[in-house]
Structure formats: structure tokens, C-alpha cells
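REVIEWER CHECKLIST
Item 1: Sequence provided? yes
Item 2: Single chain? yes
Item 3: Sequence as submitted:
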Amino acid sequence: MKYDLLLFDADDTLLDFKRSEDVSFQIILAKNGIVGDVKAFHESYKVINDLLWSQHAEGLVSKDFLKVERFRKFLEVNNLEADPNQLCDDYLDTLPSQVFLIEGAVELLKTLHGKIPLVIVTNGIGVVQHKRLLNSGLKPYIELMVISEECGFSKPDRRIFDYTFEILNRSHLSSRTLMIGDKLETDILGAKNIEIDSCWFNPDKTSNVTTISPTYEIQNILELLRIL
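Item 4: Structure as written out by the authors:
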């Protein structure tokens, strides 16, 4: 193999977060008595959520603030009455049980398990990500999962990668490492920041309008096997 370590993003690379989020959001709206155009509500929430996560990555807002603020702002923008703290609690309770996999993820990890160390490096909330990995059935194939909330740094900050290599007791400078992820601004830029190769998982064939260039690009996660 060209590489002796694989770093995977979790959401929308191995786990279908978009589907999990969609189902969880519908459940918590119903539970809290919010009725209306659920699709429009969800799109509104995603815009707010993405902005807050971007601000968090830049160190502008804390994780605890983000958790509740996204729902407070969602209610405000849509002129809805509900308790944002309750929505937050319900969402964090619901999301781990609504787990869906990216097509081919299980086959990929089964094929690679025992041949090369498989590690997840993910931005997210610790308790949620641990439960989601356990419920996904992928945990037996993963050597280590590093979560931004637990280590204090988020991708693309190189320090989350430094933290990962420290736990693995290896140097990225002497390691043939490949980062695989769906987001250019976090996964691929993070790999570039630490000078390791990267593979952009781009199933929707989205045009790259950034200056961030991955080493490889794939549309199906199983295509990774041809690269290795």
C-alpha cells in the first residue's frame, strides 16, 4: 500500500449525517409541537447551524454556546415559540439513535481492517459522536476516534492532527498518511496544513470553487481501494 495510516472524517464520509440530521430534526419538531413547512424549517436551521460551526472553527463562539444558540436563532428567524434549551436536549438525545451509513462504508472498512490502521478525526460533540459510532456498527474496525470537543481543536487546525499523531505515538513527517473527507474547508485544508495527502469524497460531484486542492477525488467511497 502507498499509505500506512488512514484518517477518516466521520459525518458524510462514513456516516450519512445529512439523513440522520433530517430525521432527527423532524422528530424534535413534532415532539415540541412545532408544525409547518418542515423542509423549509430544516433549511433555515442548517444555514444557522453551518454559520455557527464556522464561527466555532475560527474560535469565535464556544461549543456550549453553539449547541443552544442554533435553536434559539432558528426559533427567532421563523417566529416560532418553543424552548431552545429543550430543543437542544431533544436533538442531542435523538441524533445518536438515528444512524445511517454511507453506501460502501462497511465493505470498505471490513476490507481494510487489519491491513492498515483506520482512525476517525471528526469535528463534533463528544458524547454524540461516540454513541453514533457505536450504533453504526463501525466501531470494531476503528482503532481510534479523535473528536474536536474532546481535544480542544477543530479541523482544519493542525493541532487536532498533532493530537492524533501524539496518541498514536507516530510522527506525521515519517508517516505515509492519507486524510479522507467530504469537506474541502476542514478535511482537505486540514491535511494540507499538516502536509499529508488528502482524498476528497465528493459523491455529488460538486465543483471545487476554492483554492484548496486535494491529492485525490472520489465519488464512491469504495473507489478509495484503487488509490491505496
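Item 5: Key structural point noted by reviewer: The chain has two domains: 5-16+101-227, 17-97.
Item 6: Recommendation: ____
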